[in-house]
Design goal:
This protein is mainly alpha-helical. Helix content is about 75%, strand content about 0%. It folds into two domains: about 160 residues, no CATH class; about 55 residues.
Length: about 230
C-alpha cells in the first residue's frame, strides 16, 4: 500500500469512533431543518455546501424563530471563528501543498476532522503524504453527514421522541475536545466558554453562543500570550 493510501485509511479509521455520534446528529439536523420550514432540497444542500453541523443547527433554529438575516449571519460567523484557529494550527504542516489541495482540505475541515488530524500531525511531524490523513478523516465525515442528513429528511417528524438522539451531540463534542485539552489555556478556554453558554442560555436568538465563543477565545488567547511572555523571559 502506498504512503498516501495508508495515510488516507488511517484517517478514516481515526474518524470511525466519532462517526458513531455524528450519524444520529445528522439525522436530527435533517428532521429539525424540515420542522424549521426549510425544503427538502434546501436542507440537504446546506449539508453539502455549508457542511458545518453547529452552523446548520443554529441556522435552522434561527430560521424557525424568524430571526433577522443579519443576526443569522453574525451568529454563524462568530460560531465558526474557531475554524480560523484550526487552520492556523494546521498551517505549518500543510503550507507546502498546492492551492487545490488547500481548497479541498479547508472545505473538509471540521471539528471532528481536526481533532484526530492535529494529534496525528503532532506525532508524525512533517511526514510526506500526511495531508492524506486529513483527507480520509474529512471525507469519511462528509459522506456520513450527507447520508445521515438524507435519512433525517426522509424520516422527518417520523423519528420518535423516545429515541432521544440529541444525546449524540454533547457526547461527540466531548470525544473531540478532551484529547486536545493538553495545556492550561485550552482547558480554561473550554471551561469558560461552557460556563458562559450555560449562564447565557436564555438570551434571545442564541446570542449566548456568541458570547460564550467570544469569552472562550478571549480567555484562551490571554492565557496563551501570558505563557509565551513568561517563556521569553
Amino acid at each position: 500500500m502506498s504512503e498516501s493510501k495508508k495515510n488516507f485509511v488511517e484517517g478514516v479509521r481515526s474518524e470511525i469512533p466519532l462517526l458513531i455520534g455524528v450519524f444520529p446528529f445528522g439525522m436530527i439536523y435533517g428532521a429539525l431543518a424540515l420542522n424549521a420550514g426549510l425544503s427538502n432540497l434546501a436542507s440537504q444542500m446546506m449539508s453539502s455546501i455549508v457542511f458545518a453541523g453547529s452552523a446548520q443547527f443554529i441556522t435552522a433554529q434561527l430560521v424557525h424563530d424568524a430571526a433577522p438575516g443579519l443576526v443569522v449571519v453574525l451568529t454563524i460567523a462568530v460560531v465558526n471563528l474557531r475554524h480560523m484557529l484550526y487552520s492556523a494550527s494546521l498551517a505549518p504542516y500543510l503550507k507546502d501543498l498546492s492551492i487545490r489541495w488547500k481548497f479541498l482540505l479547508s472545505y473538509l475541515l471540521t471539528d471532528e476532522a481536526y481533532a484526530p488530524s492535529i494529534l496525528h500531525f503532532e506525532k508524525e511531524g512533517l511526514a510526506t503524504h500526511k495531508h492524506w490523513f486529513l483527507l480520509g478523516a474529512g471525507f469519511s465525515l462528509w459522506f456520513t453527514w450527507q447520508v445521515s442528513t438524507a435519512i433525517g429528511i426522509f424520516l422527518g417528524a417520523a423519528i420518535p421522541e423516545s429515541w432521544s438522539l440529541d444525546f449524540a451531540l454533547p457526547l461527540t463534542f466531548i470525544a473531540m475536545v478532551v484529547p486536545v485539552l493538553k495545556k492550561m489555556p485550552m482547558v480554561a478556554a473550554a471551561l469558560s466558554a461552557g460556563v458562559v453558554a450555560l449562564l447565557a442560555y436564555s438570551l434571545p436568538f442564541k446570542l449566548g453562543l456568541i458570547l460564550a465563543a467570544l469569552v472562550g477565545i478571549a480567555v484562551g488567547t490571554l492565557l496563551e500570550s501570558r505563557q509565551t511572555a513568561e517563556v521569553k523571559k
